[in-house]
Amino acid sequence: MYEPYYGFSAKPFQLRPDPHFFFGSKGHKRAMAYLEYGLSQGEGFIVVTGEVGAGKTTLVRNLFNKLTHEQIVAAHIVNTHLDPDDTLRMVASSFGLPHEGATKTDLLTRLEQFLHSVDRQGKRALLVIDEAQNLNPKTVEELRMLSNFQTDEKSLLQTFLLGQPEFRSTLHSPGMQQLRQRVIASYHLGPMDAQETRAYIEHRLHTVGWNGDPSFDDDAHAAIFGYTGGIPRKTNTLLDRVLLMGYLEELHHFTGEHIQTVIGDISEEFQQPEAMGTPQVAVVQGNGAAGMDHMAQRRDSIEVLDERMMRLEKSVVSVLSILKKIVANPQGVQAAQPVDSQE
């Protein structure tokens, strides 16, 4: 909606991970270095954790862009609310193997044959598991067992595990000792600092052809960092709304006051109505994997709500755009109104 107004070639702060917008902050560069180091080793597990919206998926997409498909066969799994058998089916499916109705023995046999076939072609197999915090310990152990596929000289499968910080609790639980022994590198991706956040914003704007319009003063950048804490996804969400307001209000320069206005609007949208009373805190029964599964399901529900809110916002923006045109040209609207017949 606002892209033509500011002369952008695309939406600069979309929520969908896009490697073309990859920004190499200090943390992201180090995380990428760990992933590339892992690739050079060709074995074991690489673990990268980070907060929600820290940019882990974008990191993986950027890595995939660098992979030479002549040397590496990669599979990426993002749906991790699975039991061990379903996980094996998902792994087989991600590598393009038949899996419907297959028993666990069939799946393991097909995977082993496939991995040996990849090796005979002079290639390597890479499995990337996103949202690893949703994996229960039994599923993690099943993935570890896949690393037992090997020849006399090397492993046939390498695995990257990316997840939110709570995955480290699973990783350091008593039953995960054998997996920990196969982790050759582990890194936690933290948020960007204020300077990096500013550079991140300008990088994404430059990627879509930004020529300085709109501009942001120092107070605006301070307000942005104060709200987002350097988390890329929160930054994208806020800046998308800021540019939308700029389009509707015909702004070409943003101050801290403008940013605070948008932050206030976002906060009000997610406040619980007073009529609903005091919100009750849900108690998660149990602990360990069951509790994390419940929390993960709640996060998934929030993501679905975000998608719906974005679609609703687009509809509202369309109506507001029409209203702006009506206000700008009221005479044209009056001329279009029917004239009452006089008796």
Tell how many strands the DSSP assignment holds.
7
| Rg, alpha carbons | 25 Å
- Our estimate of the beta-strand percent is 5-15%
| Approximate shape | elongated
Spans where pLDDT lies below 50 across 5 or more residues: 275-296, 332-343
Structural class: alpha/beta
With helices defined by DSSP (H or I, 4 residues minimum), what is the helix count? 14
**Strand order in the largest sheet:** 2-3-4-1-5
What does this 3D model show about the protein?
There is one protein chain. This protein is of the alpha/beta class and 343 residues long. It is 53% helix and 10% strand. The chain is built from 14 helices and seven strands. It has a five-stranded parallel beta sheet with strand order 2-3-4-1-5, sandwiched between helices. Strand 3 (124-129), helix 6 and strand 4 (157-163) form a beta-alpha-beta unit. The model is unreliable at 275-296 and 332-343 (pLDDT under 50).
